[in-house]
Design goal:
The complex is a heterodimer. Chain A is built from 13 helices and seven strands. Chain A is an alpha/beta fold. The chains are: A alpha/beta, B alpha/beta. Chains A and B meet through loops of A and α3, β14, α11 and α12 of B. The complex binds thiamine diphosphate. Thiamine diphosphate sits at the interface of chains A and B.
Chain lengths: 351, 326
C-alpha cells in the first residue's frame, strides 16, 4: 500500500498514531517536511519492486520508516553544509536535495545518474551538493564527515558536517576513533546514530555491550542525547541545537535517533528474526510520515487537502524519475577507465 | 560419489565434518544464524553445534580477527567468517601484522581460517574487490580460491587440519554452482593445481571464477582447431608453478587469466616465474588476461567492460597461437 493509499484510507487519522509536538513549527516548515518525507517514502516504495524486476541491479537497502531522521536533521542544515551516509541512505540523499530523477537513474546505472552509473544505490553522492557519499562499508561514512568538518574548521568555511551511521556500526571500533578525534579537535560535526534496532538479522541489544550507544558517546566528552526518531520535529530541534553549537565553535554533538526500519534489511529479506506483530505495532503507531500528517492537521498547520497534495506531488515526482531513468541511456563502455586517477598511470590493457 | 551440492553447501559440509571431529573448531561472524551467512554458507551449523561454537559477533571485523589470532595461539581453531572479503580491510593489521607473522616471530602455530566471498558481481565498488594478490604477497598467509564444490570442501578440510593462517576466498558467482563432492577423508592439498581440460597447443593457467570462462574459451577454440590445456591452480599461496611448467614444457605457450586487475597481480607473478624458468622453451610471449585497472563500477554496461570474459580469453589465446588461429 502506498502512503497515499494509507492516507486516503484514514491512516493519518488513526487513533493509534503517537502524537507529535509541533509547538513553534510553522506551516511552511510542516509543509516542507511532509513533502520531503513523502518523496522519500514514495521513492523507496517504487524502487523496491524495480529491484525485484531486475531494473535496478545490485540489490537495495531501503529506509522506509526512517524518513524523519534524515529530514529532521538535514532541514536544520544550511546550504553548503555536508552530509555523509551509510549503505541505507536514499533518505539522506533525497533530503539533501539531490534530484529524484538523477538518483533513480543512478540506481538504474544510467549515464544520467548522479554519478554517471559508477556508484549505484550504496554509494550515492554528489560532492558539489555537499553529499560526501553513502558508504558500502559500515561505519566508514562517519570518518568522511569528520574530515569534512576538519576542512571546514581549518579552512574557516563555516560549514557543519553530519555523519550518519547505524546501531550495528556502533560496534565498529573506528567509529569511536572518529568521535574522539572530533572532540579532541572540537570539530563542527554532528554525529547521528540511527538506532533502528537491527543490524541485518541481529537485534541491537544482543551485540551492544552496556546497551546504550549515547552513553558510550558521553564517555568521549561530547553532549549526547536520545531522540524519538519517528518525530521529525524532535529530530529537527535536536539537530538545530547541535548545528548551532557546531557553527559557534562548540564542537561535536551526538544524537541517537530511536527509529525503526519498517521494511527488511535489503530487498528479498525474509525477516525471520522479528515478528510481524512487532512490525505492525511500529507501523500503526510510529509511521513518521503519517505521524507528521496527523499532527499537522490536528495543529491546524495543514489541511487534509494539503496532505493529499503533498503525497500526490511525491507520486508524480517519483513517476517522472522512473520515466527519466527508463528513457536514459547506459554509459558508454568506452568511458570505463576515465577518471580513475588524475595522473595517467600508463597501465597496459589485455592483449 | 555424493549427490550434487552447491559450492556453499560443500563448504558447509567440509566445515561440519571437521567440527564434528575436532572440538577446537569454532566459527563466528555476523548474521550466521537466520541467513546462515550471506550465502547460506553456514546455515544450520548453529543448530547442530550450539551458540558456543557458532557465535554471532557484532560488526567488529578487527576484533573478530584479533580474537581469532589470540585464540589460535591458545588452543582453538577459529574460523572467522567475514561474509565479504572486502570487510577484511578493517582488519588488515590483524591479518597482515599479527596472524601472518606469529609463527615466524614467535614460533607458534596459527591455525586460523578467515573466510570471505570475493570477486566481481553486482553491488558496486566497495563490495567487489579481487584482493587475493594482497594476501598472497604477504609472507605467512595461505590463500585458497576454489572453483568447484569438491575443491571447496577438500580445501576447507585441509585448512582446518593445517597449522597456518588461511584466507579462504569463495567467489560470489560460484556460490550456487553445483557439483559432486568427496567424502570425509578426501582432502585437497594446498599448492596442488589440476588440469581441468587437457590440450596440446597452449596452456591457460587460472583459478577461481575464470576457470569456467577459460574452459568455455577452450571449447570455442577447439572448434577453430586450437587445443587449449586449462589449469586450475586452486590456491594462489602456495602457487603450483610446477604444474604450469610441466604443461608449458609440452605446449610451449602460456596465457595467464585472472579476474583481478592485471596490474601487479597473481598473473604477473606466474608470467614472470615462467619467463625465468622456461625462457628458452617458449614459442612466444606469455600473455596475461585480467581486469582493467578500475574500481568495480555499478552500471551493467561498465561492469561488463570491467570483467574479463571467455571472449577476452579466446582473443589472447588466438594471439598466443597465431599460426593456427588464421
Ligand atoms: C565493515 C562492514 N562489515 C559488514 C558489512 C555488511 N553489512 C552491511 S549492512 C550491515 C548491517 C548494518 O547495521 P546498522 O549499522 O545497524 O545499519 P542498518 O542496516 O540497520 O541501517 C552489515 C553487517 C559491511 N557492509 N561493512
Amino acid at each position: 500500500m502506498t502512503i497515499l493509499d494509507r492516507q486516503s484510507a484514514g491512516g493519518a487519522s488513526s487513533p493509534e498514531l503517537a502524537p507529535l509536538d509541533l509547538t513553534g513549527v510553522d506551516r511552511g516548515q510542516a509543509e516542507s517536511w511532509l513533502a520531503s518525507m513523502s518523496l522519500i517514502r514514495q521513492f523507496e516504495t517504487v524502487a523496491e519492486p524495480l529491484v525485484m524486476a531486475g531494473k535496478i541491479p545490485g540489490g537495495m537497502h531501503s529506509a522506509i520508516g526512517q524518513e524523519a531522521t534524515a529530514v529532521g536533521v538535514i532541514s536544520a542544515l544550511a546550504e553548503g553544509d555536508i552530509v555523509t551516509g551509510t549503505h541505507r541512505s536514499h533518505h539522506v540523499t533525497l533530503a539533501k536535495g539531490l534530484p529524484p530523477r538523477e538518483v533513480m537513474a543512478e540506481l538504474y546505472g544510467k549515464a544520467t545518474g548522479s554519478l554517471g552509473g559508477r556508484g549505484g544505490h550504496m554509494h550515492l553522492a554528489d560532492v558539489g551538493r555537499g553529499h560526501f557519499g553513502s558508504n558500502g562499508i559500515v561505519g566508514a561514512g562517519l570518518g568522511l564527515a569528520l574530515g569534512a568538518a576538519l576542512g571546514s574548521s581549518v579552512g574557516h568555511r563555516g560549514q557543519v558536517a553530519v555523519g550518519f551511521f547505524g546501531d550495528g556500526a556502533a560496534n565498529i571500533g573506528r567509529v569511536w576513533e572518529y568521535v574522539n578525534l572530533a572532540v579532541v579537535w572540537q570539530l563542527p560535526l554532528v554525529v547521528v546514530c540511527e538506532n533502528n534496532l537491527y543490524a541485518v538479522e541481529t537485534p541491537y541489544a544482543q551485540v551492544t555491550g552496556g546497551g546504550d550507544i549515547a552513553a558510550r558517546a558521553r564517555g568521549f566528552g561530547l553532549p549526547a542525547e536520545k531522540v524519538d526518531g519517528q518525530d521529525v520535529a524532535a529530530m529537527h530541534r535536536a539537530a538545530a541545537a547541535a548545528v548551532q553549537r557546531a557553527r559557534a565553535g562548540g564542537g561535536p554533538t551526538f544524537i541517537e535517533s530511536l527509529t525503526y526500519r519498517l521494511g527488511g534489511h535489503d530487498v528479498g529479506d525474509r525477516e525471520t528474526y522479528r515478528t510481524r506483530e512487532e512490525v505492525e505495532r511500529w507501523r500503526a503507531a510510529q509511521d513518521p510520515v503519517l505521524r507528521l500528517a496527523a499532527a499537522a492537521q490536528l495543529a491546524g498547520l495543514l489541511s487534509a487537502d494539503d496532505v493529499a497534495a503533498a503525497l500526490a506531488a511525491a507520486e508524480k515526482a517519483v513517476a517522472e524519475a522512473v520515466e527519466y531513468a527508463e528513457a536514459s541511456p547506459f554509459p558508454d563502455p568506452g568511458t570505463l577507465l576515465t577518471g580513475v586517477t588524475a595522473t595517467d598511470l600508463r597501465i597496459r590493457s589485455n592483449p | 560419489m555424493s549427490p550434487r551440492v552447491t559450492l556453499s553447501q560443500a563448504y558447509r559440509q567440509g566445515l561440519a565434518e571437521e567440527m564434528r571431529a575436532d572440538p577446537s573448531i569454532l566459527v563466528y561472524g555476523t548474521d550466521l544464524f537466520e541467513r546462515g551467512g550471506h550465502w547460506g554458507q553456514v546455515r544450520g551449523l548453529g543448530d547442530e553445534f550450539g551458540r558456543d561454537r557458532v557465535r554471532n559477533a557484532p560488526i567488529s571485523e578487527a576484533a573478530m580477527v584479533a580474537a581469532g589470532v589470540g585464540a589460535a595461539m591458545n588452543g582453538l581453531r577459529p574460523v572467522v567468517d567475514l561474509n565479504f572479503i572486502d570487510f577484511a580491510f578493517g582488519a588488515m593489521d590483524e591479518i597482515v601484522n599479527q596472524a601472518a607473522k606469529v609463527r615466524y616471530m614467535w614460533g607458534a602455530p596459527m591455525p586460523l581460517v578467515i573466510r570471505g566471498t570475493n570477486g566481481v558481481a553486482g553491488g558496486g565498488a566497495q563490495h567487489n574487490n579481487s584482493i587475493e594478490s594482497w594476501f598472497a604477497h604477504t609472507p605467512g598467509l595461505l590463500v585458497a580460491m576454489p572453483s568447484t564444490p569438491a575443491d571447496t570442501k577438500g580445501l576447507i578440510k585441509s585448512a582446518l587440519r593445517g597449522q597456518d593462517p588461511v584466507i579462504f576466498l569463495m567467489h560470489k558467482l560460484l556460490a550456487g554452482l553445483r557439483g559432486e563432492v568427496g567424502g570425509e577423508e578426501d582432502l585437497v592439498p594446498f599448492g596442488r593445481g589440476v588440469v581441468r581440460r587437457p590440450g596440446r597447443d597452449v596452456t591457460i593457467a587460472t583459478y577461481g571464477v575464470t576457470v569456467s570462462r577459460s574452459v568455455a574459451a577452450a571449447e570455442q577454440l577447439a572448434a577453430e582447431g586450437v587445443e587449449v590445456e586449462v589449469l586450475d591452480l586452486r590456491t594462489v599461496a602456495p602457487l603450483d608453478l610446477e604444474l604450469v611448467e610441466d604443461s608449458v614444457r609440452r605446449t610451449r605457450r602460456l596465457v595467464v587469466v585472472t579476474e583481478a586487475p592485471r596490474h601487479g597481480g597473481i598473473g604477473a607473478e606466474i608470467a614472470a616465474a615462467l619467463a625465468e624458468s622456461l625462457h628458452g622453451e617458449l614459442d612466444g610471449p606469455v600473455l596475461r588476461v585480467g581486469a582493467p585497472h578500475v574500481p568495480t563500477p555499478h552500471s551493467p554496461t561498465l561492469l561488463a567492460a570491467a570483467t574479463p570474459t571467455a571472449e577476452d580469453i579466446a582473443r589472447a589465446v588466438r594471439l598466443a597461437v597465431p599460426a593456427r588461429a588464421a
